[in-house]
Amino acid sequence: MKNFNIKNLFTVVVILMLASCKAFAESASIEFSINVKPYMEIQTLTNPVLIANITDKTGNLYTPLFSKFRVISNSGETKTLYLKAHTITEHGNESAIFSSNGRVYIAFSSVNNKPTSQSLANCKYGAGQNESPGVVAYPVASIRGAKTKFVDNASKYEVYVGNGTTDITVNIGSQVLRNSFGANDPKGFYQATLSLTEADI
Predict the structure, then answer these.
(1) What is the DSSP letter of 24?
(2) What is the rounded distance in angstroms from the CA atom of residue 76 to the CA atom of residue 24?
(3) What is the pTM for the complete model shown?
């Protein structure tokens, strides 16, 4: 009986020792990595006011114009975009954004009777009322949604956007630039194109 108990006790101790031992197994791991490239998307948003009528005598607009852009970026730092305006003359596509007396303006050219480059230049430099036929100009009243800086010698705005989604609204005022509207401006549509770009082109 004594031997039996010792034998049983020995068996129990061995079983407990084996149970408490952790199983040994080989292991290996692989780490996956992905590289997310810098991403930027610029969209035009719906419902901008793109068409307005000119009052008969003053050249002012009945309704101010505005456009909206949405910028989506995953950059962790502030990015610089460029806001420019162009209009078409007999010479082709020309810059339409300029400053005069501390305000920034956008020039609109006649669609059906394309003005000369000189007419556009006269409008920008504040020439007399009859010296810029086919070109009228209106002020950039405000740009909301992002910090901006107008670069006069480059005829553009720098627009600063951060990470995430940024909605930018460009408001065009209704009061015509003095002397840019006159009786020699042909009737019909006048047009300017506003663009927001990542590349400074």
Answers:
(1) P
(2) 46
(3) 0.81
Q: Would you state the pLDDT for residue 71?
A: 97
Helix (H) / strand (E) element for 95: namely strand 92-95
What DSSP letter does each residue of 99-152 carry, written as one string?
EETTEEEEEEEESSSPPPHHHHHHHHTT--GGGSTTEEEEEEEEEESSEEEEEG
- CB distance 138 to 58 below 8 Å: no
Is residue 3's pLDDT more than 60? no
Distance CA 10, CA 13 (A): 5
**C-alpha span between 201 and 193 (Å, rounded):** 15
| Neighbour-count burial of 17, counting CB atoms closer than 10 A to its CB (0-12 exposed, 13-18 middle, 19+ buried) | exposed
pLDDT > 70: what percent of the chain? 86
pLDDT tens digits, one per residue of 146-174 = 999 999 999 999 999 999 999 999 999 99
User: What whole-number distance in Å separates Cα of residue 40 and Cα of residue 81?
Assistant: 11
CATH architecture of 40-197: Sandwich (2.60)
**Structural element, H or E, at residue 160:** strand 156-161
Q: What is the pLDDT of residues 73-108, one digit of tens each?
A: 998 889 999 999 999 999 999 999 999 999 999 999
- Domains of the chain, residue spans: 40-197
